[in-house]
Amino acid sequence: MWIFKKAAVSMAAVSLLALGAVVGVGGSALAAAGPGTLITGCEAQVNTVANGFEPNCEAIGGSIDNPTVIVVDVDTDDLGTLIDDQKGQGMDASWTLSCVVNGTPVNVPGTYDVTSTSQAPFTIINLQTAVGSPMPNRCSIEDLTVQTALSLIPLILRPSTLGENALRENALRQHALGDSSFTVGVVALASTALPGGIYQAEGTTKGGARAVLCADDTANGNAGSKIQGFQCLNDLADSFVRTSSGQLVHNGDCVGLSGSKVILSTCTAGETSQEWLPSAVGARVRNRSTGTCLTAPSVMEGIQLTVTPCGNGANQKWHLPAASAAPVLPDLSSASIWRALRLRR
To answer: Which CATH number does 199-316 carry?
Structure first.
């Protein structure tokens, strides 16, 4: 037996709609927010149907600081029955992920098609794979769009090919279309990291004054830059984020080694020389690859950091930024997603 709402939804998807209000959000999200931070999204209410249109919505661009994972989620609530019944049909989402990594803009297109309710309505963007860094400083989602991809219109267009029962069913479908009302929507969500300093309590400025000594990216650069000890100034050159695997990331690049010297290098998944393991807060930080410890050869600012055999000296005692949790899937419950979207209209 044909379900009238199912008929209305299926027909509207090929053809057929006059959109009501379209909701869209975007802009900057605050750093260090928990899982489920809304980057951008849109929702379109379909109130009536008409030939020649397809349900869709397009979000305005939105940005997020220090993302650890980004998820694109499609609202399929009103199309679930149809998607299961119509093989190969569903919702198509597309977007462009734009990040700056190692001083270079990286723009990566993405798509996700939902063709069955047994399929997850979301896709997870692996940032290391997509743009070459597990934690870029900032990423944007641009041109986020969702569009239906359903096709029952031939049944309406060729009634002469139908038998009597099919013609009757076709008439019922057309009648049901007049009362259809549903939504299409898509959101981009993120989990984020909290940046902080890598520092030790003992330090001395070039003028001889006492100072807290920070790991500092000289000139706030990129891969190849040396990491020096420098008076903590709470500026971008002192700002790092720490992944759950122990990477220390700055400007999308990872703290690594060139021999025994500490430098920034392009982040590589599974590269143990870029993994730093603290024994405790304010204590030694061991490099997983070499087994040696992060060391300030001098408490005077401007000296490049090194790794040396682990000991008990104050020059090997460091405080690190809080480790980010392993990437957590944001809260994808329909109510929370769409409530957040509507609150930001």
So the answer is: 2.80.10.50
